[in-house]
Design brief:
One of its GO terms (biological process) is siderophore-iron import into cell. This is Iron complex transport system permease protein. It is a single chain. With about 325 residues, the chain is mostly helical. The protein has a single domain, classed as ABC transporter involved in vitamin B12 uptake, BtuC, CATH 1.10.3470.10. It has 14 helices and no strands. The two termini are about 25 Å apart.
Length: about 325
Amino acid sequence: MTRSSRLRFGLVLIGMLALLVITVALSLGVGARPVAPAVVIDALLRPDPDNADHIVVLTQRVPRTVIGIVAGGALALAGTVMQGLTRNPLADPGLLGVNAGASVAVLGAITLLGIASPRGFIWFAFAGAAVAAVVVALIGARGPDGGNPAKLALTGAAVTAGLTAVTTLILTTQTVALDVYRYWAVGGLAARGLDSVATVGIPVLIGVLLALLCGRGLDLIALGEDTASGLGHDVGRTRAVGILATVLLCGGATAIAGPIVFLGLLVPHALRAVVGSDYRRLLVLAVPAGASVLLLADVLGRVIALPGEVQAGIVVAFVGAPVLIGLVSRRRQMVL
């Protein structure tokens, strides 16, 4: 890493952290009920239970801001790891069947146990996401070519298709399940509390640490698995650690925010356009970048449909699609 590249990385990191601070401030102050920055600070430092603005900040906006940071950072980091493991720029956390597994588990909780609150879905969503990802990883690792990126992708697609069919079957036969499920399925930060973050906090933190440990291994895998093995690197270990990190990150994020799609695909592409393809840099930058994107989507969703709001997952997909198309087109032009 040259001096100029280190300087550029440092500046980008500072910029990402500054952007995160700005988005946190917007998340705490912007909404159907605008709250001035001074009032937000006062609510955080000297909360007044009789002040309506303080109540809004502490009971509604602080929890959804924390959830946005955790879920956004986790999904972006998981997407970066998956793209590195599979050497596929179109890979995202859903490749392991995470969203589909979480959806089936949530529907099971609704139909079998009568749970109707997003807070009650947390462990079910986390467990469903983890089980689906483990099944995909185990099946994809079987055989003489076990762990092959193409085999892993095909296995994930097959498991996702099967779980999606189960989800559709339940939704078409259980009207009550549809009414509860459709709110969770769009992905968002509202109606969740800090207790949900505490529930998945340790698994997500472990996932972050494991993902960051994969940086050098992912850089070597990018050269080709044979080349990485020839250089003495244990490709199987990096793959196992990376998949475990993805399971923990995606399971936790999906449990607290619902199946937010596209974020894990968009953020790594945007970062590569700025700092290149060094995974040791991308993994570090993915956390504040992903958190900022999800918080910005949540803030935008609050103000574009007043007095109601649009869920953050819908905003990410709607705004992110043209951005990703632009990034891909730009890279293609550069290659040509």
